[in-house]
Amino acid sequence: MKLILYFSAEKGKTAKIAQDFAKKQQEVTQEVTVLEIKPEVPYTSADLRYINPLARCNKEKLMKKDVPSETKVPDWENYDVVYLGFPIWYGGAPNIINTFCKGLDWTGKKVHIFATSMTSGMGKTAEKLKPFLNGAEIVDAKRVKSAEEMQDYSHDGGDKFPAKNDRGYDWWLNKGTLSANKP
Ligand SMILES: Cc1cc2nc3c(=O)[nH]c(=O)nc-3n(C[C@H](O)[C@H](O)[C@H](O)COP(=O)(O)O)c2cc1C
């Protein structure tokens, strides 16, 4: 059975892609479930204002905080394929994804990672997430802009859609957001 798991915070960009993809999959097979990873404490727009050094998102990132989720996956052991989607934050997965993933046994699961972003490509996102997906096989990891692009997994080996004028995650880490926190 397939599971589409996603986290989405700002404008529901990742949510829309996950839901569209789920619909397409469900046209083909009944064996697809879609679940949103919801934080125990929902993000407000102030929490996500990364240009404010004191915003929740920056504190979570800098302090490497766990971000607990209220989402539970019923019958986790029944899923062999998991699509895991999230927005790229600071060149990687948001902390809530790490926290969520490390609480599960991924042994034997095939994982397709998909992410949305403003400008960044996948970079090292999958590599950084790997330690939290213990036992999983990461089949693919890519940045997508639509559910159609997700259908391409069979022949896409990586980041097929690197953004033009990509600022890169260094920009996000250093200049874009967290510079105000530096001495
Ligand atoms: C805290 C935070 C950090 C972000 N870091 C990056 C980044 O490193 N690179 C990038 O291209 N976009 C970054 N973004 C933008 C989001 O990845 C982008 O807007 C995403 O598509 C939002 O998806 P959503 O509407 O599902 O939340 C960041 C956004 C937030 C709130």
Write the layout of secondary structure elements.
Elements: E1 2-6, H1 13-28, E2 32-36, H2 56-62, E3 81-87, H3 95-102, E4 110-116, H4 125-129, E5 137-143, H5 147-150, H6 168-176
Question: How would you briefly describe this protein structure?
Answer:
The protein has 183 residues and is of the alpha/beta class. It contains 6 helices and 5 strands; from the N terminus they run βαβαβαβαβαα.
What do you see in this structure?
This protein is an alpha/beta fold and 183 residues long. It has one domain (2-181): Rossmann fold. The protein is 27% helix and 17% strand. The protein has 6 helices and 5 strands; from the N terminus they run βαβαβαβαβαα. The chain has helices spanning 13-28, 56-62, 95-102, 125-129, 147-150, 168-176, and strands spanning 2-6, 32-36, 81-87, 110-116, 137-143. Strands 2-1-3-4-5 form a 5-stranded parallel beta sheet, covered by helices on one side. The relative contact order is 0.17. The model is unreliable at 153-183 (pLDDT under 50). Bound molecules: flavin mononucleotide (FMN).
